[in-house]
Amino acid sequence: MENVLRPLIVIGGSVLLTLLIGWASDLLLRKADERHGETPLWGLLRRGRIPYQLVLCSAMLRGSYDEARLLQEHEVGVGRTLTLVLIGSTAWLVIRIAAAVVETSYSRYARLHRDPARVRRVRTQVSLIMRVVAAIVGVVASAAMLLTFPAMRAAGASLLASAGILGIVAGVAAQSTLSNLFAGLQIAFGDMVRLGDTVVVDGEWGTVEEITLTFLTVRTWDERRITMPVSYFTSKPFENWSRGGSQMTGIVYWHLDHSAPVELMREKLRDILRECPAWDGRDYGLAVTDTTPNTMQVRALVTAKDADDIWTVRVTVREHMVRWLYEQHPYALPRVNTSDAALPSSRRSPDGAAIRNHQSSRTGRG
Length: 366
Prior knowledge:
By secondary structure, the chain is an alpha+beta fold. About 55% of the residues lie in helices and about 15% in strands.
């Protein structure tokens, strides 16, 4: 009877005590979260309740296993398994706690600072710091797990003797990986590119969606994802439209007939922008920037608060202006002449007949 009750009491008591402590801890965190709603720390710490309970349960079972006297012929294997579970759950709990602390710090910083560029920079740094912390904790936990096996401890001594040669070989083999790793750290703390920045790489326009220690993902306007090594951004030029502020100036071109009413177009541009919510109201302008024998080039300058809005303003101005010209001033659009030009009287022949030239045509784009 004792052989049955003892394991039940030890194992059941450990599990029950774990559940009780876990419930009490979660209750305290919930109350703290309700009392201090201005900080998300306590709510984020609740995400670690599962690894926390695993740590408690595995620690209690590991400490009381000898008293249970269960599966004594497999005592070493069971004890090592519990130790591995304890190490793994502890690493998991440490990562969750670190993530809660870092996320709380970032939230407080984002709440106090209204500059989007600085907030994106801090978010990029926080993201990469968490990846570094997770990698370090994972490596330490893996090493601790391996050291629980006697064979691994014996092998460690021989590996330590040849660490110099192995380091050289590993460095040569992982040269690309290491370069990307240091490039990721340089991007995080050098403020070259941040999460949410609008960039142009290899002719593709998009938004930085993810930054890791080895690669960076750009989400294009048509929902494609471009994944590139972070070393690209430290070795090649690229456009960062969010650098130094998100405000932008956009350009709209029209190729029109020489008779186009430029002054009326300026007034119409002002009316279009006043009805466009994406225009930030900073500036606008319209001018003739070039002429050809057939058309003239008219350029409009518009402003917006970011890259998405400047695109909206440009297409809106282009569409409404062309429609207005077509409906109110159709003569201003490029056209093809199919009749002969009327020449001045000085170029008429003595008999009064007009000197005819070859037909000329004019073409252009709207």
